Task: structure prediction
Amino acid sequence: MLTKWGYEAVMARDGVEAWQALQAPNSPRLAILDWMMPGMDGVEVCRRVRAADREPYIYILLLTARTESQDLVEGMDAGADDYLTKPFNAHELRVRLRAGSRILDLQEELLVAREALREQATHDGLTGLFNRASILEALQNELARSGRESQPVSLLMVDLDRFKNINDTHGHLAGDAVLREIARRMKSAIRRYDAIGRYGGEEFLILLPGCEGEAACVQAERIREAVAASPFPAGADFLPVTCSIGASWRGRPSVSDTDSLVREADLALYRAKDRGRNRVEITAWQPESAGDSDLPSLALAITADHR
Result:
């Protein structure tokens, strides 16, 4: 009957097999469970499915010969969404499955809407990268993880060179197009487990787990080269765009390093601007024997117009 009605039927010979099928990655969304089954009864399967609290939701129809109200209450309390008493009427089964399908469709729409809201809350609308709050949260999480595992972490601050000229000369629509393409190029240049976010305006933060010192410079150079690889089309013109990158790192990080890493990467970025732009600069570290090993050594002459 299920096949005739357009469903793809997955058969289970007992309760244990049913429970295993409902744990599978592509488990059925609709489940018709007999109350009495060998190995594990339908009520216990219901309890386990609800205790697992997986998404997407599984709609459960309990099939039973029991008609006592207390039995039906027990089945519904265990997590069944509906029940049908035996001997059952085929038409009644069909309409109850239709009702279950409508509920699952509504839940799917809610999940899609929730994911869209989550995307809006955590990602930058123009570039699709993490927004400022999300990339800083990712930095804190990575510092905590790397601190537990005694792994280094590096942070890159990327700023586009003379980006204001693009907006002033070619308009903000051209500037937006350049930012989107810059984001795409940088994302394609980073490693799969790195994280990148828009820090503000034409500034970006890139998180590099497992990197320190020169290794961070190598990654930063790859990103810088990807940005400057080819000019950006803007109407009849092609715009050469470059970026400056400042890097900071910790060999033994902790969550308390969040602000100082950002500040040090920013100082290194200013030094890249001061030394001619389109280059990478990294925080210079004092050796441990010098005492304040957690403090970067940077001698900079910073002026307001360097960006």
Q: What stands out?
A: The chain has nine helices and twelve strands. The chain has two domains: 15-122, 132-297. The domain at 132-297 is CATH 3.30.70.270 (Alpha-Beta Plaits). The two ends are 71 Å apart (CA to CA).
